[in-house]
């Protein structure tokens, strides 16, 4: 409790900006996962636990980028055609077994090692062959069509840094460096629950006044997409004792607890007080729309993020706060979400002092992308997310937006599968 009152005092009980909340997350939390070794083919989506230092050059040997003739550039006449004898052959997997002689051209194929003594490859389309001799046009640059050893990755370089979430090209690079297994962090174990007396599981009859649980399915998919192993703690009622019991159970054998609903200031919202009973609450009010109530705390030492109840607020706060939090706990380098400048196809007024995320679709207008704001912007309008391409982000300082202004756009494809 001392922790809680200190924190409330520190922020004056006011609203926390997104930057402050992210700094809190970064400052308070550390990676919680140990490392394990997995076969390369099982490493997709995992987070690399150690830097991979290239133990060899990539490519390992200089080789030809085309089918043609390998020569020493110094043998070419500068202003007229050169005729050289074709004295050998090098194919991929079948290097020439001797150095090339001066004045000799070597028939070469893509991927074949460059014979010693050659430095340039003339494409076969630019050559004329006359029984055993090749006629070469003037003007080719020294080193043309030659791939240097180590031009992709040099021996000793960090090929892949620790903290990288591995994707298809990363597995390819590890394989190209000869690695058959990788050291990765354990998957984050996440306990997930919904709160609310009105919330029921799909597939069951719906009593009067009730609604089906959307958030557990949104969050389950988002968490799984980030490589978390999710335990489903179901739907819990709006009673403090029931939430204390559920959170205590969820804190065993999990690295993170994620809840939705029950974090606002209403008398039916008991998540915050349940967290305070079992651990500590670090913050709960954010200067953002949608999604003002978000609780960050810990329960028996396990971090907890309590997201709002409205499904759109769940998605926005997951993208803005839960993703970086999960990256941090899972040992991943902060997922840099790329925002793109687009033109606003609408005007808008907002309260300064808070950050707003507007659902919008993109349309092309000449050289520019223009964002059209989705007409309904309630935090409960889940279809608005489905029918939009991403979020226009308006920062704290903005109070009005004129049509045609350039704004930051975060595509949903950057942050959701
Ligand atoms: P709360 O923050 O608990 O007051 O919830 C805010 C709004 O979100 C209410 O209209 C709830 O009915 C709704 N809500 C809460 N949890 C869920 C859920 N799991 N699925 C869909 N809607 C929800
Ligand atoms: Mg509720």
Gross morphology is: elongated
Q: Report the sheet-strand fraction.
A: 25-35%
By DSSP (H or I, 4+ residues per run), the number of helices equals 9
List all distinct small molecules, including ions and cofactors, that are bound in this structure.
adenosine monophosphate, magnesium ion
Evaluate the radius of gyration: 30 Å
**Major β-sheet strand ordering:** 7-4-6-5-9-8
Distance between the termini: 39 Å
Q: Name the structural class.
A: alpha/beta
* Largest sheet data: 6 strands, mixed
Helix content: 10-25%
- Report the strand count: 28
Oligomer: single chain
Which stretches of 5+ consecutive residues score pLDDT under 50? 1-12
Give the overall average pLDDT.
95
Report what the structure shows.
- This protein is α/β, with parallel strands linked by helices and 417 residues long.
- Helices cover 21% and strands 32% of the residues.
- It has helices at residues 2-10, 18-28, 168-176, 215-225, 240-251, 271-278, 311-329, 383-386, 412-415; strands at 35-39, 52-53, 63-64, 68-71, 82-90, 104-108, 120-123, 127-130, 133-136, 146-147, 158-160, 181-185, 189-195, 199-200, 211-212, 229-236, 256-260, 279-285, 288-289, 293-299, 302-307, 340-344, 348-349, 355-365, 368-373, 390-394, 400-401, 406-411.
- Helix 2 (18-28) runs parallel beside helix 7 (311-329) and helix 4 (215-225) packs parallel to helix 7 (311-329).
- The longest helix has 19 residues, at 311-329.
- It is elongated, with a radius of gyration of 30 Å.
- The structure holds adenosine monophosphate and magnesium ion (MG).
- Adenosine monophosphate is lined by residues 194, 196, 198-199, 211, 213-216, 260-262, 264, 266, 269, 308-311, 380.
- Residues 194, 196, 198-199, 211, 213-216, 260-262, 264, 266, 269, 308-311, 380 line the site of adenosine monophosphate.
